């Protein structure tokens, strides 16, 4: 439980730091417009903050997501037997007209 709270805090700190880096970049662009300077790139501190906060946010969200499933589908299929491999319960039909062709069929009395 404590680890989940810590991962939530890491995620929130990463997102807030990422938003701060975006706000700082917007403020830098506004400053350059006011002083009529040409934009050549963002300062290195804003770039580093953006990249580090991106990785912190990714770490936080990946630890909160839980266990991942295997990408290869053969991992799930290896545990099934051959008899259950082609079993599709969603296609079972019990009320069909073939029942009327049976010699033991008694039609319902309405």
TrEMBL record:
Source superkingdom: Eukaryota
Signal peptide positions on this chain: 1-21
Membrane topology according to the record: Multi-pass membrane protein
InterPro entries in alphabetical order: MMgT
Coiled coil stretches, renumbered: none
GO cellular component, one term: Golgi membrane
Keyword Nucleotidyltransferase: no
Keyword set, alphabetical order: Endoplasmic reticulum, Endosome, Golgi apparatus, Magnesium, Membrane, Signal, Transmembrane, Transmembrane helix, Transport
GO molecular function: inorganic cation transmembrane transporter activity
Transmembrane portions of the chain: 40-62
Subcellular localization: Endoplasmic reticulum membrane; Golgi apparatus membrane; Early endosome membrane
Record-stated family: Belongs to the membrane magnesium transporter (TC 1.A.67) family.
Subunit structure: Component of the ER membrane protein complex (EMC).
Role according to the record: Part of the endoplasmic reticulum membrane protein complex (EMC) that enables the energy-independent insertion into endoplasmic reticulum membranes of newly synthesized membrane proteins. May be involved in Mg(2+) transport.
Protein name in the entry: Membrane magnesium transporter
Gene this protein is translated from: LOC113217523
């Amino acid at each position: 439980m404590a680890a989940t709270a810590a991962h939530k805090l890491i995620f929130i700190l990463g997102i807030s730091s990422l938003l701060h880096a975006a706000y700082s970049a917007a403020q830098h662009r506004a400053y350059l417009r006011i002083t009529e300077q040409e934009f050549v790139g963002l300062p290195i501190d804003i770039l580093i903050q953006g990249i580090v906060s991106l990785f912190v946010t990714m770490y936080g969200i990946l630890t909160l997501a839980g266990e991942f499933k295997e990408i290869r589908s053969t991992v799930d299929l290896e545990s099934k037997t051959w008899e259950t491999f082609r079993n599709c319960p969603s296609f079972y039909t019990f009320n069909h007209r073939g029942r009327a062709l049976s010699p033991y069929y008694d039609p319902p009395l309405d």
